[in-house]
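=== Structure Prediction Worksheet ===
Name of assembly: unnamed complex
Input type: mixed (protein and possibly other molecules)
Chain count: two
Listed entries:
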Amino acid sequence: MTSSASLEARPDFKVIAEIIQPGTRVLDLGCGEGELLAWLIADKKVMARGVEIEATNVRKAIARGVSAYQGDIDEGLADYPDKAFDYVILSQTLQETRAPLRVLTEMLRVGRKAIISFPNFGHWRVRSAMLFSGQAPKTELFPYDWYDSPNIHFLSINDFEDLCRKNHVPIERRYFLSGRNRVSWLPNLWAQTAVFLVG
Amino acid sequence: MVVETKIASFDSIALDCGASLSPVDIAYETYGHLNGEGSNAILICHAFTGDAHAAGVSHEGKPGWWDNMIGPGKAFDTDRYFIICSNVLGGCQGTTGPASTNPATGKPYAMGFPVITIRDMVRLQKMLIDSLGIKCLLSVAGGSMGGMQALEWAVNYPDMVRSAIPVATTWRHSAQQIAFNEVGRQAIMADPDWNKGDYYDTKPPGRGLSVARMVGHITYMSDDSMREKFGRRLREKDKLGFDFGVDFEVESYLRYRGSQFVTRFDANSYLYITKAEDYFDLTNGTGRLVDAFGSLTTRFLVISFTSDWLYPSYQSQEIARVLRRVNGDVAYCDLRSNYGHDAFLVDVAEQTDLVRGFLESTSRVVEAAA
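=== Predicted Assembly ===
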């Protein structure tokens, strides 16, 4: 789920914006208020579409000039023809979907490539929070109480790589971030956010 | 801003039913100025009982029916865009309709008027737009029946329509919508004063038309908005009257609306326009909306309202979903409102954000392409 924060405030947006080639066709699932797409339209001249469930976010996205559709992600994907997009983006939302594998498969049906970012449940703070409190971990990265969290799946970087391997989804590029910094050593322990380009 | 309704006349128009009308007049108003490139024209299409007077104030001091959306700095910003609104074919506010004089007889057409369609209305609007020297419309927008016209525009004249804003509308009239229209028609035709449509020299069927309008008004509101507006409040009395006079506020309101309507609307126009709505099916009966939209490059902003039960949100969602299926450029939002179908006329704050942003981005796309 995208917040109202600007592009600068979301390190994964910066990486995603780097990956996307100018003039391509981009679908952003859970596009929030459309900040990323508005930036991509202005700076990369992409053909942009968004899907977002929250009416308030959709309204702000459309007011920004983004063609956003109010609906859920599953419905959002089912309508599109095969390979309608060059990139399908799912930022910080995979852990909120009911059937992540189906979402990934559908993303690669409607898009040539999928860009997926998610908070890393393998981060050392999450591990230590769980270890020392004995409770569902509550950290900067996962700030919710277990009973009001939008997250219904918890995955680490290794989990995602495992999912791709088992389902023969080629990983083209991977980016690991801690705050704004890139992480290269033991990413599953040190990275807060992962961005994968797959397909 | 005092505005004036103008009339454009054409020799003839061919209709979907096979007949033609000649001559034909169309009443219209314009606001703002057409720019040098002719790229800022927007056509506004009115709903069932609307007219060409969409914005500004008439000589009689009457504000336009969408004055809260059209004007300087408003959603349809007349400082930036050139706005046109015309009265529909079959109407009774300046455009040729059943009350107009049939040149063959020298009398009103009455029921001799041909049955018209939404596409016929759009065909006449196209003649007007051509005559104004406009090659391309930045947008065609409208709510309810106005939305049907916007859809017909996009499908029939795709090269002329850069964007369309169908609001609180449908791609084909449903059984429920046809049913309510039929109740209205039957109320009019059951009034002895209707006289098979021949009442222009005598008394119009005011009672029937008034009942038709009362039913219409109920469908434009919602359970919530009626409860808020009227509840069970009594009209100028403390206790029930135990007779069949007016007890409740809601009765008084409907009677008032009905009687007001009779003074401004022609009963035969009511029959013809509701028939045109009922015949409306963008797919001409095939049900294959994918084919109708084909490879449109028109951008769409589709808007529905959560409490609209006359044109429920699912109908707008169908439009938006099929546009996505054909890879169209569509934005869709289901705006929260308690006002029912009337929301598109009265609940305009959020609608304004959507329309303004959509028109600005459409302008950018058009400029980039030029």
